[in-house]
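Anyone able to model this chain together with iron/sulfur cluster?
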Amino acid sequence: MLQQTQVVTVKPYFKKFIKKYPTLKSIQDASEDEILTLWSGLGFYKRARNIFRTKEIIHSEHKGRFPKTFEEIIKLPGIGKSTAGAIMSIAHQIPTPILDGNVKRILQRYFSDDKNILSEKELWNLSLSVSNATNSNLYTQGIMDIGATVCTPQNPECSQCPLSANCNSAFLKVEAKKSKKMTDLKTINMKLSLFVADQEILLRKIDDQEIWKGLWSLPYTNESTSKVRNYNIEKIKHRLSHRILEIDINLKKVTKKFIPKNNFQYQWVKVSDVENIALPKPIKKVIKNHGKENPL
Ligand code: SF4
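re: yes, here you go
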């Protein structure tokens, strides 16, 4: 959950997730849809799909027990070298190097500075050289926490840092890095329709080729030929990590429920039930704002 997402954003989702699935056994029969529903609004939905695939593999190939070797763990969907290292160190207490964004920054600053950039290989070697601690779980959790809370990208708190005595960059000024402006990001346009019939709305399952795949969303405007009366168009802008979505939502009232004739999967759902459905955040918001309106 924490990949590219801050702790403060993740916290409520993590609590909800762990409450529903406190053990591997409890998640065993969960469908992808159920996992995505708990993820709804958190973004980067690939992580949720990977959890689904991982628990399937653990069931079929590891007899329902989480694997214990680095080689087996790294084969699981969504787990790279650094995450596998963190699991080995923290869960299994076997010293294994990690190199997430926070650790990279600490090693870069500790052994060099923000100007003489070390290569990925050099950083891995440094991580290996310092990770062979007796209490590997404490070391690994500690270095990640220092990166997240003390040695932050813009304003490292060197006076609070337990590494400051030997750090090469201690108390050096950090140059502000420019973040990507909205205008630098690629824009994708979408035209969707919010069909409302008797406080129910029509949803379509997003297929493999699209953004938000595996979630539910609104049908594309050109998917339905049914004669309906448009009454409003709402424009929304939503920022993803590398893209901007500009969505025109065509709000439509229909007197009779229908299912468009094509290969996509549809369902009509009560507006009051949208909380229980895996929907992207901006779409959920539009439904909550307009799903109960009577436009005619
Ligand atoms: S002393 Fe400062 S620059 Fe060095 S690791 Fe600690 S916070 Fe980062």
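The chain has a mean pLDDT of 88.
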